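If you are new to this repository, start here. Below is one unmodified record pulled from the training split, so you can see the exact layout before writing a loader.
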Amino acid sequence: MLPAHRKLQENIAEYVIYMFQIEDIVRAFDLNIDRLMQEFVEPQLNDTALIEEYRKWYEELIKDMKVQRIEKSGHLHELREILVELSYLHNVMMNRAGDKRYKQIYEQALPSLNDLRERSNLKEKNDLELAFHGLYMKLLMRLQRREISEATEKAFESMSAMLGYLAGAYKKMKNGDLDFLNN
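And here is the target side for that same chain:
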C-alpha cells in the first residue's frame, strides 16, 4: 500500500501534510514523471515491484495538478475538500457539539496561530489551514536541518495537538462512531 493511501486511512492530518509535501516534490521536478521516478522515487524504493504502482499514482497526480492548474502553487481539489470537511467538524465541535476538551486544545493553540498569521503571508487562511501550513513549515525546517527554537517548538506542539485531536474525531466521524448529540 502506498504511504498516501495508508495515511489517508489512518490519520487525516498526516495525510494532508504529506500531500502538501508531495505536491511540492512534484513541482520541484517540473511535473516530469520520468525525472521524478528516476531521481526521487526509484532511489528510495526497496521493492522494485512497486515501481509501476508508484508511477501510475504519480502520473495521476501530475494529470490532476495540470487539469486543476496548480502546477506552480495551490492544493488539489481533494485536499481542499478534506480541509472543508475538517473545518466543518472544527466548527461543530466548537459550537454545536460543545466538545470541551477540543475547545481547550484549540484555545491553547490560538495564540500560536495568531502569531503565525501575523508573521506569514497566510493572513487569509482560517485557523485550521494555518495549523496545517504551520506544521508543514516545521517539516520543511526539519528537512533543511534548520534550528527550531523552544518557543517555536511549543507553538508547533500546540498546533499538532489541535490537529491530532481533530484527526481522531474525523476518523470517528467517517466511521460513524461520532455522536454529536451525546458529547
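Two things worth knowing about this chain: The mean pLDDT is 92. The first helix runs from residue 3 to 10.
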